Amino acid sequence: MEIALDKSTETNASLTIKLTKEDYQPEVTKKLKEYSKRASIKGFRPGHVPASLIQKMYGKSVLVEEINNLLSKTVSNYIRENKLQVVGDPLPDRDKADQIDWDSQSDFEFVYNLGMASDFDVDFASLPAVSSFTIEAGDKELEETIDNLRNQFHSHEHVEEAAEGDMLYGELKQLGGEGANEEGYVPFETKTALPLKQVAPDALAQFIGLKKNESITFDIQQAFPDDKARAHATGLKAEEAAALSGEFTFTIDDVTRNVPAEINEEFFEKVFGTKDAVENEEQFREKVTEIIKSNYNRETSTLLRYDIEKALLENIEINLPDAFLKDWLLITNEGKITPEEIDQQYDAFTRSVKLQLIKNKIADQNEIKVEFADVLEATKGLVREQFGFYADNEQVNQSVDRIAQNYLMDEKADNYTKMFNRVFDDKVMALIESKISVEPQTITIDEFKERAQNIQPVQA
Question: Looking at residue 451, what is its pLDDT?
């Protein structure tokens, strides 16, 4: 086997691979013998099919398959061993491939076109300083959070007169609508609940002040213009509710109102999922403040990550094979995307490619590794956030561990790979943050929102 790399430009190269019979024939012979043992052909006993017949029936397909396998391994190994900064996938030269005579040739030559990133260095000292923000968690944020929690864990009370945000229970009947005058038409009616928070603002006034046993007539599309809200009000599927029109009457059986939860032990348990989290309101407020700060830290970490990535991209020059990458994107997407769409998305794509190249080089130079324990621990943290497992006791910890393990074992969703990449990225970003100049600043939540507005981090 002969392998030769020819760089035509800084970012474009071709890889030529020459194969002789000695390179592929042993595997081809081995595979044909396996076929001979398994083949079931009329007129021959199993395992006694002549080699000449097996060769005639399967020889070419086995040859093509084994050479393709050999080429794939050879190209991958060459790129890895020579540490080529290849972007996209190697593209075979189709014109040369089409000239191959698989029936008569024994020596083969294959050419792959490679797109490569230009060489670059990562000099942390040359990167500009970035700001690391700390958001003030004041009394205003604490009270707003507690109010939201009280509303989230609300109770219900029965009231005599409807007000904005109440729930009306009763019987809904259709008076008109499309098809009302047709023979066999059956008007819609049901026992249901009407959430006043979903009623259109310009129709809400007619519902306010209603009492038990009173009735109201309204146009259902005016009162509930949104199909989903209409489906909620009628109990129908969205597509069925969309067809409802005309006037309806609603006779009220009951009116209920959400009442914010009282600040007591029952409330503490609902918020934190355990009786042991806090013992009194003072501890509750301290715990909520910690959670607010933790949430703010995630927000500011996202902004810091964006600023670091921006600094990397703006201060490290990397050239890419633009024409090659556009062709590669067009080929690999198999007609699902047009050249015009590629042009529109190309800048965002190349930013992502460059950023990943930079992170990979940093990880390689600093021997950053990701172990299973790292992935599992990160997944546990994700589970705690999503399910609100704030308590730290054996029962909760066992539940978190079980959910995390099951999540990572879901091969169809490829969850382990996703979490692995997330942990890898976090480790690289943490190292970068430790190497560059980071200037701490304290700001209010409003100042932070203004600064972070419209920022979309680069997706690597």
Answer: 78
The pair phi, psi for residue 459, each rounded to 5°, is -95, 115
Q: For residue 460, what pLDDT band results from cuts at 50, 70 and 90? A: very low
CB-based burial label for 118 (10 Å; 0-12, 13-18, 19+): middle
Quote the tokens at residue 73.
């391994």
Residue 193's DSSP bridge partners are 169
Closest by CA to 267, choosing from 133, 151, 364, is 151
**Looking at residues 303-318, what average pLDDT do you find?**
93
CB 300 within 8 A of CB 290: no
| Nearest Cα to Cα of residue 438 among 126, 128, 134, 123 | 128
Q: Please state, as a whole number, how many other Cβ atoms lie within 10 Å of the Cβ of residue 236.
A: 18
Let me know if 326 is exposed, middle or buried by CB neighbors in 10 A (0-12, 13-18, 19+). Answer: middle
* Cα(262)–Cα(406) distance, integer angstroms: 37
Architecture of domain 2-116: 2-Layer Sandwich (3.30)
DSSP state string for 242-264: HT--SEEEEEEEEEEEEEPPPSS
- Under a CB-based contact definition with an 8 Å cutoff, are residues 191 and 170 in contact? yes
Phi-psi domain of 388 (left: phi exceeds 0; alpha: psi -120 through 50; beta: other): left
Which helix H or strand E contains 449, and what residues bound it? helix 445-452
Q: Label residue 452 by pLDDT band (50, 70, 90).
A: confident
Question: What amino acid occupies position 309?
Answer: E
Confirm or reject CATH 2.170.140 for domain 124-143+279-452, answering yes or no: no
Nearest-angstrom CA–CA distance, 96 and 109? 8
CB atoms within 10 A of CB 182: 7
Q: Where in the chain is the domain with CATH 3.10.50?
A: 155-259
394-435 pLDDT per residue, tens = 887 888 889 999 999 987 778 999 999 999 999 999 999 999
How many separate helices (H) and strands (E) can be counted in the chain?
15, 11
pLDDT of the residue at 291: 84
Give the residue among 172, 295, 327 at the shortest CA–CA distance from 244.
Answer: 172
Residue whose token pair is 């939201």: 148
The DSSP-derived string for 80-94 is HHTT--EEEEEEE-H
For CATH 3.30.70.1050, the residue range(s) in the chain are: 2-116
Instruction: Say which CATH architecture domain 155-259 belongs to.
Output: Roll (3.10)
pTM for this model (two decimals): 0.66
**Residue 402 C-alpha from the chain's centroid:** 22
Rounded Cα–Cα distance for residues 294 and 427 (Å): 19
Task: Determine the Cα–Cα distance for residues 217 and 194; give it in Å rounded to an integer.
Answer: 13
Q: Please give the radius of gyration of the chain, using alpha carbons only, rounded to the nearest integer.
A: 33
Question: In which residue ranges of the chain is CATH 1.10.3120 found?
Answer: 124-143+279-452
